Amino acid sequence: MSTDTAPAPGAAPPASDERLREVSRVSRLLSRPELGAVVGAVLVWVFFAIVAYDNNFVSWATTAAIFNRAAPLGILAIAVALLMIGGEFDLSIGSIVGFAGMTIMVLSFPSDGGGFGWSLWPAILAALIVALAIGWFNGFLVITTKLPSFIITLATLFIFRGLTIALTRLRTNRTQLGNLDEVEGFALADTLFASQFEIFGARFRVAILWWIGLALVATWVLLRTRQGNWIFGAGGDANAARSVGVPVNKVKIALFMTTAFAGFLVALIQAVQFTGADTLRGFQQEFEAIIAVVVGGTLLTGGYGSAIGALFGALIFAMVQQGIIITGVDGDWFQVFVGTVLVVAVIFNNFVRQKAAQR
Amino acid sequence: MSGNGTPLLEIQNVSKYFGSVIALEDVSAFVRAGEVTCLLGDNGAGKSTLIKVLSGVHKPTKGKYFFDGKEYNFSSPRDALELGIATVYQDLAMIPLMSVWRNFFLGSEPTKGWGPFRSYDSEFAKRTTKEEMAKMGIDIRDPDQTVGTLSGGERQSVAIARAVYFGAKVLILDEPTAALGVKQAGVVLKYILQARNRGIGVIFITHNPHHAYPVADHFVILRRGMVYGDYTKAELPLEQLVQMMAGGADLEVLQHELEQASREGGEEAEALAETAQAIESELDELEEKGND
Ligand SMILES: Nc1ncnc2c1ncn2[C@@H]1O[C@H](COP(=O)(O)OP(=O)(O)OP(=O)(O)O)[C@@H](O)[C@H]1O
Ligand SMILES: [Mg+2]
Question: Cα(A227)–Cα(B106) distance, rounded to whole angstroms?
C-alpha cells in the first residue's frame, strides 16, 4: 500500500488568483445588506426635502423630531433584526411593551389607587425580570413544540395584551395609570431614560443614544463574536449549525429574551417620558418593527441581515411619519403611505442586492 | 500503528428508531486508533443514521457508546467535537448564505481578547481556511465568498478540510468523495491514510469499492439497518467486495426484468434490451473475477 508524501503543508496559495477580479472596497461595501436602507433613507429624505421644503422639513427641529420618533421603534427593530437573522419572529414584542410598562406602573402606583406602592427602581427591576421571563417562555415554546415562531408569538401577542388589560383592570379598575413622577426614584430614571439634550437649539431625546448604542453593540456581536456567528448559523440552517456544534436552542432562547428586553426598555423609556402608561401601549409596534427590519435588508427567512440596516429602516419609517405630519396631508392616509413605502423599499432592496451580487 | 489495540470508539447493540421507522437495529461496530473502518451498504441501509449516532446528532434509542473505553451519552454534537470526533456529513452541514471561512469555523470559532471583549479572530480564521483548502489542492478564490456560490465539489472539500482540521482523534466521513473529481478524490484517500498513520481512527462511508478497498482495514456491511457482515481486509478480497456491493443476485433479477420488458415491445424496447445486455456482460465479468 502506498502512502504518498503529504502535499507540502505550506503549499502557499498564489498571492493573486487569475480567476479573481480586483474588487474594490466600494463594491465590497455595496454587498452589505444595509446598503439598500442607507440609500433609501437618503432618497426619502431628499423626497421630503423637496416636497416639504416649505413646511420646514430641512431643519434641526424636524431632524430632532424624526430621531425622537425613530428611537423607540429602532430599539425594537434592532432586537427583532437579531432574532430574524436567527431565523425566528417575535410578534409579541408590542404586547411585551404594554405588559412591561403596566408592570412598572401597577407596582409603583399608590396602594390606595389599587397599586402596590413600590418605589420606582424595584418596580423597574421586576418589570425587567417579567419581560425576560416572557422572552424565555416564547423561546421555550418555539423550541419544545417545534411550531413556527410566527404562530407561537401570535398567540402570546394576544395572551399578554389580554393579561395587561385584564390584570390592570382587575387590580386598579382603570386602563391608564399616571403620576409616575411622584414615585420615589423617578429623578434618576428621568435622567437616564427621558432627558433631552440640545443640538443647534433642537431638543433630542436620550433614547436616541440608547438606540444607536444598541445598534453598535448588536453589530459588534453579529460580526465580531462567535455568538454572532452562531446567530447567522442558526438562522441560515439550524440543522447544519447544530451538527457542527452550535447550541442553536440556547441561541434562539437568548434572542427571544433580547427582543423581550428591547420591549422592556421601550416600555420603560415611554413610561418615564409620559410619566405613565396605558394598557394599549406598544399596540401594533411589532409590525412597525418588522417593517423597519425588512426595509433594513434583513431576510425574512433568516441567516442574512444587519442591525445597522434596522437602524436605517426605523429612520425611514420615522421620516415618512414626520414628513406626512408636517406636510399636513390628512393623517388618514398614513397607513397607505407606509404600506407603499414598505413594498417599494423591499423591491428596491432586492434590486440592489442582486446588483451587488453580480458586481 | 495497527492491529489489536482496544477500540478507540465503539458502539454496542445500538438501535435507532424514528417513530415507527427502524433505522438501526442492534448494530455493533468499532474503530481502533490508527485504523480505517469502512462502512458499506445500500441506499437507506442506515449508514448515515449510524454516523449521526456516532457524532452525537442522534441519541441512540438503545445501546451503548464507548470512547477510549469510557461510556458516554452525548447530548449534542458539541460533546463529540470536544473529544476530537469530527464528521463530514452527507448533506455537508454548511450554511449557504455564510462565507467560506465563517462556515469552516462555525461552532468552533477561534477567539482573541479577554472577558466581555473577546472577539472572533477573523484574521486567523481566514488565513487558516485558505491554507487548509490549499492543502487539498483547492484554491479558494476568496474566503469571503458565500458557500452557496461554490461548486458542489468545492463545497464538499470545505467540509472535508474542516473535519480533517478538527478531527484530532476520530474522523468520520459520510460519502466524502461523492461529488469529487479524480484528483480531489485521490487527495481525500491520501488524507485518510495520513490520518490513519497519525493514529487517528477513521470511519469511511463510500459506495465505491475501489475507493474503499485501498484504505480500509476492516469492513462493516449494513443491510436494512442491521449488520450483515464484519470483515477484516484479509477475509474479504476485492472481487468479493465488488460483488457484494454490486449485489450480484439483484443484478440478475434486474436483467431478467429488463429482458421481459423489452420483449413486450413498445418504444423503449430497444434501449431496454441494450441495458439488459450491458448488465449481462457486467455479470459475466463479476463471475470471472469471483472465480479467480
Ligand atoms: N430523521 C428521520 N426520520 C425518519 N426516518 C429516517 C430519518 N433519518 C433516516 N431515516 C430512515 O432511516 C433509513 C436509513 O437512512 P440513512 O440515511 O441512514 O441511509 P444511508 O445508508 O445513509 O443511505 P444512502 O446510501 O442513500 O446515504 C431510511 O429508510 C430513512 O428513510
Ligand atoms: Mg447516507
Answer: 10
Answer yes or no: is the ipTM higher than 0.85. no
Alpha carbon distance B203, B218 (integer Å):
10
- Picking from B77, B97, B107, the nearest residue to A303 by CB comes out as B97
Among B18, B51, B205, B222, name the best residue to mutate to test ligand 1's pocket (greatest count of ligand atoms within 8 A of Cβ).
B18
Q: Can you give the pTM of this predicted structure?
A: 0.86
Nearest CA in chain B to A302: B97
Beta partners for residue B37, in sequence order:
B203, B218
Rg, C-alpha atoms of chain B: 21
Q: How many CB pairs below 8 A link A and B? A: 107
Nearest Cα residue to atom 6 of ligand 1: B18
The neighbourhood of ligand 2, an ion, using CB within 5 A, equals: B 47-48, 90
What's the number of domains chain B is made of? 1
What confidence tens digit (pLDDT) does each residue in A302-316 have?
999 999 999 999 999
In 10 A of CB B187, how many CB atoms?
22
Residue of A nearest to B130 (CA): A13
Do residues B74 and B59 make contact, with C-beta atoms less than 8 angstroms apart?
yes
* List of domains in chain A: 32-358 (1.10.3470)
**Chain segment B201-251, per-residue pLDDT in tens:** 999 998 888 888 889 999 999 988 999 888 998 888 888 888 777 665 555
Host domain of residue B31: 9-94+150-254
CATH number at residue B38: 3.40.50.300
Q: Give the orientation angle of helix A248-273 with respect to helix A207-224, to 10 degrees.
A: 170
Q: Which three cell numbers stand for residue B106?
A: 462555525
CB-based contact A308:A314 (threshold 8 Å): no
